[in-house]
C-alpha cells in the first residue's frame, strides 16, 4: 500500500513540476515567475513543460559567472539554491530522490521491466561525489571562455534527464533546431540510452553512480530531522530489507546510509519484525503510537 502511495506521489510530482501543458501549442518553454523556484529533484529547466528551475543548473550558472561577477565587484554568493537544498536535506535527507524526482520515477519504472537483474558494485557509489565536485563546482569556475564565463559542464556534456526532457522534445517542437544538431548531441543521446538500458538491468543506476543532486542531499541523511531507526533487539538478520532495497543497503549494518533514498520499502514492506521505524526530530514512530521506546540509531 505504501509503495502505491509513493508511486502516486512520484507521478503527481512529475506532473506538477512539468505543469506547463500549453507547450504543444506555444512550442516553447515556460518562462513565467515560477521558474525562479528550484525543483527539489532533477527536472531539466529547458523541458518544455517544466515550470521550475533545476537546482543543478542554477548552481552551475552561478559558478560559471563567478569570475565575471568578481571582476565587476558583484559579490553575490548564490546562497539561495544551496540554502534551499540544505533546508530540504536538513528536514528529510535524500527523501526527494525517492518521492519527488521525476528522473528517479523513470528509472523505477524501467526497472519494473521483467528480466535478469544485476547489482551495482559499491565502488560506483563514490561516482556522484566526483561528479558533484568536478562538474558542478570546479570545472564551471575553472574553465572559462574569452569573456570569463564558464560552462555548465553537467548540463552540457552529461545530463541524460536534460536530453530526455528537453533536448529530444525541443527538436520535435522546433524543427529549425535540427540543423544545429552536432556530435555532442548524439553523444548525449548515447548517454541517455546507456542509462535507460542500465535502468532495466539495475535499480536506479544514474542516481547511484552519477547524480550530483543525490550526492548533495546524502550529506544530510544521518542528521536530518526525519530519520529511520534500527531496533537490533528485534532484528533476525533475515536480509529481506537488503533484498528489497532499491539501492542495495543492508539496513541492519548501516541505518540512514548516505545512499538511502528514504523510499521506506524496508520499513513498510520488508521487515515483518518491527526492527525498523522512523523518528522525526527525536520523536519516534513507536512513541507516537504509544508502543514504547528504546531504539538504536546510527
Ligand atoms: S528485514 Fe528487518 S529483521 Fe530482516 S534483516 Fe532487515 S531489519 Fe532485520
Ligand atoms: S534503506 Fe530502506 S528506506 Fe533506504 S533506500 Fe533502502 S529500502 Fe529505501
Task: Please tell me about this protein's structure.
- By secondary structure, the protein is mainly α.
- The chain has two domains: 55-217, no CATH class; 226-288, Alpha-Beta Plaits (2-Layer Sandwich), CATH 3.30.70.3270.
- 49% of the residues lie in helices and 4% in strands.
- It is built from 16 helices and three strands.
- It has helices at residues 2-17, 23-26, 55-64, 66-71, 79-92, 95-99, 102-111, 127-142, 153-157, 160-173, 183-201, 205-209, 212-218, 240-244, 265-270, 285-288; strands at 226-230, 276-280, 283-284.
- It has a three-stranded antiparallel β-sheet with strand order 1-2-3.
- It is globular, with a radius of gyration of 20 Å.
- Residues 291-298 have low confidence and may be disordered.
- The structure holds iron/sulfur cluster (2 copies).
- One iron/sulfur cluster binds next to helix 14.
Amino acid at each position: 500500500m505504501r509503495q502505491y502511495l509513493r508511486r502516486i506521489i512520484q507521478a503527481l510530482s512529475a506532473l506538477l513540476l512539468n505543469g506547463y501543458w500549453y507547450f504543444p501549442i506555444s512550442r516553447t518553454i515556460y518562462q513565467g515567475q515560477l521558474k525562479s523556484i528550484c525543483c527539489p529533484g532533477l527536472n531539466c529547466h529547458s523541458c518544455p513543460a517544466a515550470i521550475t528551475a533545476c537546482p543543478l543548473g542554477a548552481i552551475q550558472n552561478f559558478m560559471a559567472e563567478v569570475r565575471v561577477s568578481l571582476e565587476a565587484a558583484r559579490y553575490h554568493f548564490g546562497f539561495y539554491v544551496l540554502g534551499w537544498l540544505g533546508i530540504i536535506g536538513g528536514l528529510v535527507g535524500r527523501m526527494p530522490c525517492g518521492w519527488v524526482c521525476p528522473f528517479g520515477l523513470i528509472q523505477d519504472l524501467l526497472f519494473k521491466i521483467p528480466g535478469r537483474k544485476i547489482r551495482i558494485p559499491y565502488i560506483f557509489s563514490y561516482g556522484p561525489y566526483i561528479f558533484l565536485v568536478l562538474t558542478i563546482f570546479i570545472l564551471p569556475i575553472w574553465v572559462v571562455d574569452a569573456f570569463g564565463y564558464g560552462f555548465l559542464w553537467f548540463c552540457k556534456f552529461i545530463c541524460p534527464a536534460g536530453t530526455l526532457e528537453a533536448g529530444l522534445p525541443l527538436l520535435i517542437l522546433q524543427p529549425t533546431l535540427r540543423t544545429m544538431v552536432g556530435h555532442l548531441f548524439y553523444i548525449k543521446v548515447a548517454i541517455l540510452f546507456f542509462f535507460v538500458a542500465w535502468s532495466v538491468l539495475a535499480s536506479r543506476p544514474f542516481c547511484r553512480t552519477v547524480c550530483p543532486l543525490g550526492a548533495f542531499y546524502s550529506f544530510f541523511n544521518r542528521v536530518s530531522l526525519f530519520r529511520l531507526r534500527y531496533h537490533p533487539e528485534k532484528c533476525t538478520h533475515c536480509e529481506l530489507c537488503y533484498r528489497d532495497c532499491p539501492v542495495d543497503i543492508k539496513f541492519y549494518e548501516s541505518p540512514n546510509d548516505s545512499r538511502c533514498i528514504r523510499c521506506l520499502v524496508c520499513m513498510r514492506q520488508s521487515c515483518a519484525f518491527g526492527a525498523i521505524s522512523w523518528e522525526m526530530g527525536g520523536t519516534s514512530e513507536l512513541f507516537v503510537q504509544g508502543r514504547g521506546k528504546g531504539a538504536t540509531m546510527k
